[in-house]
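[job 0412] stage=complex_fold ligand=aspartic acid status=START
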Amino acid sequence: MKKVVKFGGSSLASAEQFKKVGEIIHADTDRKYVVPSAPGKRFSADIKVTDMLYDCYHAAEAGENFSEKLVAIKERYNEIIKGLELDLSLDSEFDLIEKNFKEKAGSDYAASRGEYLNGIIMANYLDVVFIDSATVIFFHEDGTLDADQTQKVLSAKLAKHERAVIPGFYGSFHDGKVKTFSRGGSDITGSIVAQAVCADVYENWTDVSGFLIADPRIIDNPVGIETITYKELRELSYMGASVLHEDAIFPVRQEGIPINIRNTNAPEDNGTWIVESTCQKSKFVITGIAGKKGFCSINIEKDMMNSEIGFGRKVLNVFEDNGISFEHMPSGIDTLTVFVHQDEFMDKEQQVVTGIHRLARPDTIDIEADLALIAVVGRGMKSMRGTAATIFASLAHAHINIKMIDQGSSELNIIIGVANADFEKAIQAIYNTFVLSKLEIEE
Ligand code: ASP
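[job 0412] stage=complex_fold status=DONE, emitting structure tokens
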């Protein structure tokens, strides 16, 4: 068995955390390829090393004295090295970084040093080979990943090493200039490495025991999700649930490699499995609930709309021309509603109204603001009668008025629109009905 293990910033923020990571890796000899992030926060008011690097480089770029800022970063690493009692000095690395900052090597180069240096420490601590990601992960000139070249070079390189540390978050353009992924991008590196070595599992270690059925800021102590499919995850993360970088799914999905989200601070927890497909059913019918506030709806009415060919296209043209993407578009016989993000729409509101009048000649346009969308997601809904009815009944009992209902044709989710003010109450009501009541019955 071959496992790729990625550790997030909070898992590597201090020597104490590093030791937990060391124990996790040593506990399973299949954990062969390690992808570290940069040191994250040690406590909630702390600053991530990545942010310190960006800040330090901005000072360097502005021609300010940045040595104090760089010393503070060096201290973060030295504290880890000392705590692990390693015979390692990063002095020459920091001299080179200082020189490159002065020569304005770029903010991507600067940020990438966070994982680069942590990778050197990790390789030393585990006594395995360190592979600089700039030599094995490549980007096209337009900034997108050159997946073909990366897989070719990376898999050939890793075939030569039974174990290795490959720092997360960065690679290079073909001319050697360092380029990072977007923030949180070490998740993507882990996924790319898993693909390159044909791993059996991609373990992604963080500071929570996987995904929760609902947002813990809304629901007290929500139940965790044991297994979720890639598609369900996409629906939930689109609606605001985030643990994993979105782009991390693609490389492993191509190979059908499962991802296991685990907690460095509670390694005994099984975490969440993210899989292509499964016959395992969620015992709650639904897999998760997520949602976002801050939408508004544009309700358009026109007599005999349903027989007018091209009406929808004309309306959507107006949104496109104004650079606004729409979220949902439920329609009735003579009505069509377009849901958009309120902050994107607000400035262009009157232009859109005028545009629709001009192009589509509706009878009325009515805008409603301060709406929230809630997605109830679950592969189990497909084979279950009455899920929608149960959702609506639970909202009715909680005295919540439903503004919109949209069931995707995949039958994987039901999206409900409610007033912003009802958002938390609605999630609570759905959670109580599907999860809490079931747990109470079991007890
Ligand atoms: N260190 C980078 C960040 O803070 C990348 C990562 O941790 O995944 O965004």
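The chain has a mean pLDDT of 94.
[job 0412] exit 0
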